[in-house]
Amino acid sequence: ASLELGPYSHFMQKEIHEQPRAIADTIEGVIDAGTFSAELFGDDAADVLAGIEGVQILACGTSYYAGMTARYWIEAIAGLPCSVEIASEYRYRDVVANPKHLIITLSQSGETLDTMEALKYAKSLGQERTLSICNVPESAIPRASRLVCYTRAGAEIGVASTKAFTTQLVALFTLTATLAKLRGRLDEAREAEYLDALRHLPGSVQHALNLEPQITAWSEHFAPKEHALFLGRGVHYPIALEGALKLKEISYIHAEAYPAGELKHGPLALVTDAMPVVVIAPNDSLLEKVKSNMQEVRARGGELFVFTDEESQFGPSEGVHVIRAPRHVGVLSPVIHTIPVQLLAYHVALARGTDVDKPRNLAKSVTVE
Ligand code: G6P
């Protein structure tokens, strides 16, 4: 291994393990400030964010899934309608613009052509309130945006994005809480609770990373398979999507994700013992519903691999494998549940002997159409 890799075999593995540090660095500003204030997003931010009536998020790939996750937060916590769209779709659509909506572009590289063009298109429609969440300072997309929030993941080399995704999530959560506060929807107790949740997050991510040996053991079940299904509900549905994307990108196993409630409208027809089913099932308000979705899978002979947390009171049984994160971390739970799906993809790819850091046909940053 090269000097840069240290004890790790691949950049992807190194970057997965850097997440506690990357997240701590990204939230340093808000933790030091001890409050969610508009200034975190630039001097101009209080003006730009005042009076917004909705949010439109634009992104590609993994960044798009960060946006999908944020939609649940923005609507529930900040009370703002939020749409999320793939940049290459938005840019070619006859969009009905609303100048009171905030346009958020998400891009690790800040150079993705479709995202850049979608931003230009939004601006051409009179959308002047623009905010970029980006990992590369002074790249094209932040330069074209009025407000900028830099994630501090550090250089990401593995083509499959990992630490950029979780740092985008914490930046989006910080933005959500800030919007809620500006709109008078965040009382002191709630603000303290969110700051505390952020403060504890790097430690909780480290606990999730410590599950690696158990996930390595699971990877042997997946390596010989050609298909996998990922299920989640609510704010964890985008994490299922991200898990499926990671697995297909680097292991070349065909993987798709469904909101678990939609199982009966199609994918249930595919379930056999040849297709492992991964379920993101933390102890949230949808857990009972997810459990009944899992029974539907089991009844058809599908093998279940469930990521849950301690509070779910959920144990393994015949055909049901369970890995439990130490505790439920509340509103930031999607960040924690990202870790095991990243590790699963990594170890399955290792077992299949693919080129983990440079998967075939894919590029780290797509600057052409
Ligand atoms: C490529 C990369 C992905 C990334 C996507 C968007 O497809 O392989 O990992 O999620 O581009 O990139 P961005 O830099 O805009 O986040």
From TrEMBL:
> Which UniProt keywords are present, listed alphabetically?
Aminotransferase, Cytoplasm, Glutamine amidotransferase, Repeat, Transferase
Q: What positions constitute the catalytic site? A: 364 (for fru-6p isomerization activity)
Which transformation does this protein catalyse, written as a reaction? D-fructose 6-phosphate + L-glutamine = D-glucosamine 6-phosphate + L-glutamate
Q: Where in the cell is it found?
A: Cytoplasm
One Gene Ontology cellular component annotation? cytosol
What top-tier enzyme class does this entry carry? Answer: transferase
What superkingdom does the record give?
A: Bacteria
EC?
Answer: 2.6.1.16
Q: Which GO terms describe its biological process?
A: amino sugar biosynthetic process; carbohydrate metabolic process; fructose 6-phosphate metabolic process; protein N-linked glycosylation; UDP-N-acetylglucosamine metabolic process
Record GO terms (molecular function): carbohydrate derivative binding; glutamine-fructose-6-phosphate transaminase (isomerizing) activity
Chief place where the protein resides: cytoplasm
Domain spans labelled SIS: 45-185, 218-359
Query: Function of this protein?
Result: Catalyzes the first step in hexosamine metabolism, converting fructose-6P into glucosamine-6P using glutamine as a nitrogen source.
Q: How does it assemble?
A: Homodimer.
Q: Specify the protein name.
A: Glutamine--fructose-6-phosphate aminotransferase [isomerizing]
Full-protein residues shown: 241 to 609 of 609
